[in-house]
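Class, discuss our next protein.
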Amino acid sequence: ADAKQTLLTSINRFRLSQATLANLLGIEVELPLYPFEEDIKLYELIKQNDNIETLYECALLNRKDVKSLELEIQSDKYKRKMNYSDFIPKLRLDYKYSYQGTARYGLGHNSQFILNADIPIGENIGYGTYTKLKQEEKEIRAKELQLIQKKRDIKNEIINHYVSAKFSKERAGIGAKRIEYATETSRLAELRLNAGEGLLIDVLQTQTEKTKARISYLSMAIEYNIKQIELLYDSGQISIENLLKDYSP
């Protein structure tokens, strides 16, 4: 009865997962989707020599959201510098060549160099330009703080997912050993039952523990694979090629 209840719960959870996946794929929700793979494996999507700092540096180089904000800040700084042109004098040099004199006394060459300087005082006698510069400075500072916080958030996510992935891998290793021990225990219980020294309840309990051990291991393996995918995203390395690394259906 306990096994049947567990089976019904698992079937219900599986059908809900099918519907969620179908919805994400944009197909009919009631369409039954089944995984192609027979077994769940541990995949090494992150290089063994990649540590937290390496992944963080990779994120700063590859994350498009970081690059976009950095370029936006650079553009705003350039625009702000352009506003200083309201105070830059504009010089103009003219040259005139002509003849001067009268017919009686003769004509002579005359050359003139004229230097004109327009000295602006800015928009609204400088106050408008100054206000604009201060406002743009505040906006740039706000975006710089936003960039700093984004980098902090990225590093925090990398640390969390890196540690979680490492922990999940260690747990998966322990889970694999647990399956071996549970399998051996179940085998010994069956031998004792066949020899008339054991009870059927002992066999059922050991088989239940074996099943629980396998479910626990599979959950840890899935968790480890997901944490690695999250690390690929955090570090800006996520792609179809990296997701299918060492994949063999």
